[in-house]
Amino acid sequence: MNVELFTTYGDGNRDERQYHLLEFEKDEDGVENKVVNLYPQVRFQIMEGFGGAITDAAGYVYSLMDDELKKQLMNTYFSPERMKYGIVRIHMDSCDFSTEMYEAMSDENDRELESFSFERTEKYIIPMLADAQKAAGKPLEIMLSPWSPPAFMKTNGERKCGGSLKPQYQAFWADYICRYIIEFEKRGYMVRRISLQNEAKAVQEWDSCVYTAEQEKEFLRDYMYPALQAHGLSEVEIFIWDHNKERVFERTCQIVDEDTEDMVAGVAFHWYSGDHFEALELVRQKFPKLKLIISESCIEYTKFGAADNRRNAARLSHEMIGDLNAGMCAFYDWNLLLDETGGPNHVENLCHAPFLYDRTAKKLLPQLIQQYFYHFSHYIKKDAVRIGFSRYTDKLDVTAFENPDGTKVVIFLNNTKEKMPAVLRMDDEIVKLELPGGSITTGIIR
User: Fold this and answer.
1) Rounded mean pLDDT of the chain?
2) CA triplet 189, 192, 198: central angle to 5 degrees?
3) Region class of 52: left (phi > 0), else alpha (psi between -120 and 50), else beta
């Protein structure tokens, strides 16, 4: 048995063609210290995939690039040889990462949706989605999420600043969402899942809409689920919450009961309020049939700044490892691409992305976080099963999977600046590792 090790250092230096190949040996002395154990016989969730968001902003920046750079970006993310992204999140109507506010229709009397226009989605999002699917060589699985219903459907009469869906428009809004799904499917794309509302608790200066737990449950049970059935879209999965983890447990408890449990495929969550991995564990224990997915995470420049790339890459990798260990089965990064400022964003809510594009120099700028994400999406294959482990210190974040081909994947994130030793132990065999400070290392065990 041997392990191939691939390491990315905090400064981003890495040569994909070079790695360490180490052989396991029998644990003759019964090593006890500095051990990381793997237990392949202990099995948890099945991994459905990795991906990110194709937003209006990402599509706009993509439209500015030449064909060679577009190909580089798409192949890095979606080709089977690189990051292997297979899932994509897309907003319905505008979000903050749009070049402007827009909605597919604004006529409150048009109950038949005759004025519904897909033109704004086709402008920037569809061209980028088409190239992504071509690079993947297979249908991408799409998650659609609304940031706000049309302004006329809301209590505050505008897309931004919260407000709620007026009760008399619940059936109308459910049909509107179904129309979005149908428009994507008419163009040959596969919508796998939806969420009912992005950040259902947030009152933002951009597109937003507030649902209490009772409102979300009512919309799910009495309108959205029946609408999917009526439109022949019963295969589309519904995810609730789609907001930060600090309230994910109680929200799930408030919505999922004997009336709704067959309607809900899972719970979507964001990372912006901190770890709260224990909250995911509680959901998994109480609702073991529900899928857990992170539908959005990124570095907000207003919170973390843009300067410390290593720390920011480690933050998001710590988040991913913690979520995986708590039961997450799908990961959606936020914007796949932004410009050099972290935009465009129609309210200047600028953020980081794995690829930035310098509009003046006309250069694509891969970021360190892209290299860190590669450690997960390239090596953990679709349908991999998370396996048990134990670690000797919380200075190392660890997760482990078994791929469908039987290979084992173990990922180490060294959260210190110092080199950390580890004795990797499995089936009473060991191999001694040294994990560089501020690095992420993936081991493939064969």
Assistant:
1) 96
2) 105
3) beta
